[in-house]
């Protein structure tokens, strides 16, 4: 049963216009910027300014001329030069970009599967009648909603190599490039395994009891039950969680910003942190826009796969 | 509740599983506990405290850091800014998103199917924000809105709008349509049915969605650090400022991390029932 009253457009329009204004317009603007080289220069001009007294009248010197002082005027000027595809070409030869891609890919390909696997194991384990489950479910909500930036800095103090709670391990958590990336992954795993756990648990709890009963009557072992009953029923949920986590992981920004600052060197600088710095710290806006677009294209590919799968849920 | 799942355990199995549950819970709670423990230490104790840093056992706790940090005008301003921005963005997103969700749930759109409209809203959520941050920054600079709460309210409302649309669409679908039809037979019209029947019934769900998106805005950092520089500092940006030339001051960091983490976490616990649906953009019903 679906109505067709004209009011439907009035109800829908504000939200659509809003989103168009604040995402589609910036995206268009960003595409335009990507074809330009934008240089910010501070132009300094020196001018003589007449000194005024309290009444607003010029102060005169001994010769009866108005006295002047030198004033320095700083003006920020943007110079935009059209350079066609040069920004995009530069992406391919920039070692920082290559490193950022490596970091991002390693991060996504390690962190996301680990989170899914751990979350799945925990969900299967605690799908049963266990006294700790409500406690665990409550505790697991904390990491998901803890401010990522605060989490990053908290882990900075935990991984602190002199006197931190893990210092006894002797592991160079933040000073060794490989360990630093592992540390970033560990923090992400801490924050997002609970998400996978909660979603899988919700899906498992939705499995009707009769299915377990039937399998048990048939003499299925625990392993059989997992393989034959739970896994097939959970596949749609697993795919959704996988794609959601991948799309989010590609945006990785807050945790390395706080935990490692992208370092040591650029060993943990993901793509979005590089684009942010290029654009809003070094103000190479055109090049940063090209970077952002490159990321956008990759995310779009993931997202297209994602939505093809997701569409079925919104009929 | 009955036993369920593979190898429903009893006796020792139950004990072992419970032990694992406790261990896992402790591991996942540890970092937050650690931030709290840091916040209670004297600067001198920061690097010398042994073991797990238990107050009274490993060191003498003090509230000085809390008093010191909460007393500074910067902390007060950051908390105030974050609260104003998060509440405003949540209200704005609810005002824009609720009618849209209702339209998608109850009306038939011909040119673009209802499903495509939903997906379109969702796709906004998956876009990498770093792709829009530069043009948004430039636009706000052009409009003279850099370092204002207003700019951050605008952008955060945009980010959380898809959640509102998706969560409330499902809520409206779950409501019995007969009530609205009855109201319209009584001459209420579509707007009356929406405003006087559907919205009050959806109010709990709207409140939950509002809480979840409040938490998202509270935690947002990329736009906050790009737009805010001195006046419109939010809590996460304020945290990033706890680093100065002397390095990270762990004891203050502990306080700031706790003030950032506590509000969204409390909110999440209140809205627990809606979290799975909210976080999976309605794809999984928890």
How would you describe this structure in keywords?
heterodimer, A: mainly alpha, MetI-like fold, 2 domains, two-stranded antiparallel ribbon, 11 helices, 2 strands, 10% strand, elongated, B: MetI-like fold, 12 helices, 1% strand, globular, disordered N terminus
What does this molecule look like?
The complex is a heterodimer of chains A (315) and B (286). Chain A is mainly α and 315 residues long. Chain A has two domains: 35-84, no CATH class; 86-210 and 218-314, MetI-like (MetI-like fold). Helices cover 63% and strands 10% of the residues of chain A. Chain A has eleven helices and two strands. In chain A, helix 2 (86-93) packs across helix 11, helix 8 packs antiparallel against helix 11 (285-310) and helix 10 packs antiparallel against helix 11 (285-310). Chain B has 286 residues and is mainly alpha-helical. Chain B folds into two domains: 12-62, no CATH class; 67-279, Orthogonal Bundle (MetI-like fold). Chain B has twelve helices and two strands, in the order ααααααααααββαα. Chain B has helices spanning 12-39, 64-71, 73-106, 114-126, 130-142, 149-174, 177-185, 189-219, 222-227, 235-240, 250-270, 272-279, and strands at residues 243-244, 247-248. In chain B, helix 1 crosses helix 11 (250-270), helix 4 packs antiparallel against helix 6 and helix 6 (149-174) crosses helix 8 (189-219). The longest helix of chain B has 34 residues, at 73-106. Chain B starts with 11 loop residues before the first helix and ends in a 7-residue tail after the last helix. Residues 1-9 of chain B have low confidence and may be disordered. Classes of the chains: A mainly alpha (315), B mainly alpha (286). At the A-B interface, helix 1, helix 3, helix 4, helix 5 and helix 6 of A face helix 1, helix 3, helix 4, helix 5 and helix 6 of B.
């Amino acid at each position: 049963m679906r109505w067709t009253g004209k009011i439907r457009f009035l109800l829908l329009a504000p939200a659509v216009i809003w989103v168009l204004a604040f995402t589609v317009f910036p995206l268009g603007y960003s595409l335009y910027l990507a074809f330009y080289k934008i240089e910010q220069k501070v132009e300094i001009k020196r001018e003589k300014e007449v000194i005024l007294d309290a009444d607003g009248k010029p102060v005169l010197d001994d010769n009866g001329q108005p006295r002047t002082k030198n004033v320095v005027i700083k003006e920020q000027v943007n110079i935009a030069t059209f350079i066609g595809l040069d920004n995009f070409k530069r992406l391919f030869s920039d070692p920082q970009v290559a490193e950022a891609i490596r970091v991002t890919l390693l991060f996504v390909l390690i962190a996301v599967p680990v989170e899914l696997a751990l979350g799945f194991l925990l969900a299967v384990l605690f799908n049963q009648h266990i006294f700790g489950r409500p406690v665990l479910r409550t505790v697991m909500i904390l990491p998901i909603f803890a401010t990522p930036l605060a989490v990053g800095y908290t882990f900075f103090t935990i991984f602190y190599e002199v006197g931190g709670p893990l210092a006894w391990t002797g592991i160079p958590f933040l000073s060794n490039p490989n360990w630093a990336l592992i540390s970033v992954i560990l923090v992400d795993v801490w924050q997002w395994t609970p998400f996978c756990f909660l979603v899988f648990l919700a899906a498992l709890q939705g499995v009707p009891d009769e299915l377990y009963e039937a399998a048990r009557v048939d003499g299925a072992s625990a392993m059989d039950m997992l393989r034959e009953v739970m896994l097939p029923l959970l596949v749609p949920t697993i795919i959704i969680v996988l794609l959601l986590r991948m799309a989010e992981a590609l945006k990785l920004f807050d945790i390395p910003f706080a935990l490692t600052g992208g370092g040591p060197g650029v060993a943990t600088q993901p793509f979005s942190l590089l684009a942010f710095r290029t654009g809003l710290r070094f103000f190479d806006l055109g090049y940063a826009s090209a970077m952002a677009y490159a990321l956008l294209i990759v995310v779009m590919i993931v997202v297209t796969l994602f939505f093809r799968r997701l569409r079925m849920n919104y009929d | 509740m009955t036993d369920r799942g593979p190898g429903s355990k009893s006796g020792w199995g139950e004990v072992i599983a419970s032990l694992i549950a406790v261990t896992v819970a402790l591991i996942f709670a540890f970092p937050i506990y650690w931030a709290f423990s840091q916040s209670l230490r004297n600067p001198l104790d920061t690097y010398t405290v042994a073991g797990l840093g238990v107050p009274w056992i490993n060191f003498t706790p003090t509230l000085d850091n809390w008093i010191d940090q909460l007393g500074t005008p910067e902390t007060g301003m950051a908390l105030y800014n974050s609260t104003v921005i998060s509440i405003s963005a949540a209200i704005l997103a609810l005002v824009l998103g609720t009618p849209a969700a209702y339209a998608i749930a109850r009306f038939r759109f011909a040119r673009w199917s209802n499903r495509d409209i939903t997906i379109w809203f969702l796709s906004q959520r998956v876009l990498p924000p770093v792709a829009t941050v530069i043009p948004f920054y430039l636009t706000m600079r052009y409009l003279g809105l850099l370092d204002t709460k207003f700019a951050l309210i605008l952008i955060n409302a945009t980010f959380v709008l898809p959640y509102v649309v998706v969560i409330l669409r499902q809520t409206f679908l779950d409501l019995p349509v007969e009530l609205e039809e009855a109201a319209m037979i009584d001459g209420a019209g579509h707007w009356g049915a929406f405003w006087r029947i559907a919205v009050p019934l959806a109010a709990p769900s709207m409140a939950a969605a509002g809480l979840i998106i409040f938490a998202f805005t509270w935690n947002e950092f990329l736009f906050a650090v790009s737009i805010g520089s001195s006046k419109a500092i939010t809590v996460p940006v304020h945290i990033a400022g706890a680093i100065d030339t002397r390095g990270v001051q762990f004891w203050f960091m502990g306080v700031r991390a706790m003030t950032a983490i506590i509000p969204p976490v409390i909110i999440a616990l209140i809205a627990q029932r809606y979290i799975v649906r909210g976080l999976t953009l309605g794809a999984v019903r928890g």
